Amino acid sequence: MPLQRIDPKHYQAFQALLEEFCGIVLGPNKQYLVSSRLNKLMREYGLGSLGELVDRLNQPGNVELRGKVVDQMTTNETQWFRDEYPFSVLKNTIFPQFMDSGTRNVKIWSAACSTGQEPYSISMAIDEFRSSVSGGALFDGTIIGTDISPTVLEQAKNGIYQSSAISRGLSPERRNRFFERNGDGSWCVSKDIKSRVSFKNFNLLESYSLLGRFDIIFCRNVLIYFSSDLRAQIIGGMTRILNKGGYLVLGSSESLGIHSKSYEFVKYNAGVIYKLKDD
Ligand SMILES: C[S@@+](CC[C@H](N)C(=O)[O-])C[C@H]1O[C@@H](n2cnc3c(N)ncnc32)[C@H](O)[C@@H]1O
Fold this sequence. Notes:
By secondary structure, this protein is of the alpha/beta class. It has two domains: 3-73, Chemotaxis Receptor Methyltransferase Cher, domain 1 (Orthogonal Bundle); 85-276, Rossmann fold (3-Layer(aba) Sandwich). It is 43% helix and 20% strand. The protein is built from eleven helices and ten strands. The strands form two sheets. It has a seven-stranded mixed β-sheet. The longest helix has 16 residues, at 85-100. The protein is globular and about 65 Å long. The mean pLDDT is 95.
């Protein structure tokens, strides 16, 4: 799809459809991104211009194509123990609090988990906590990782990573402790770490009522792609299913917006974590 063939009115129609499907707000000058990410898909579907794609997406029964477009347009960048501090705060402050208050199994949602590094890092943090305190074996967690993209979820479920992905954020000590080496040089997340984590295809624009309730929600580095109205809607939805005294962990450039009154700001050296107030 050469850039000169992107008609501004088709670009606007595509922006609106993408926001409707998954919340992503595409800036006004992202024609290059659209072109490079959708070229292959458009060839596969025999579509010659963005206008033809928009027409096809507007026809009924386009679920598969819609999913593939969203898959291509999402940014799946992630890494192990991203920003480090949320995971050390889990181990040093949050897990001890839950353990002291008698919670034996913390329920954690990793919303927009991409290829699984975030939920697996949480599971590793649980493991490290369990082995670092007396009576730690009595404490455990259940983690659900969700994402809109079936492609990244497939990799997350497999739990198999090439050396290049493994080296992003993971120390050799953690790699040797929590992974097994496959014959082809890739690394597989150990059974214990995997056993706490399940994955589900879920669009953050849907209702959260069937997900259950959580003690901790990680929603990191995804709200930045949405409008402020949608960010407020998503944080509102999460606030409703977070247990009182539970924690919400956002990305380092994301904030609570209009929901800040519902939370205590718990400041750590490297960043902030939000604790839902009891009242
Ligand atoms: C940049 S990654 C963040 C991964 C991880 N949370 C982290 O901080 O490393 C953003 C993820 O959000 C997912 N995503 C985008 N829009 C979504 C939506 N509407 N519902 C669920 N997931 C979405 C993308 O598929 C992508 O995997």
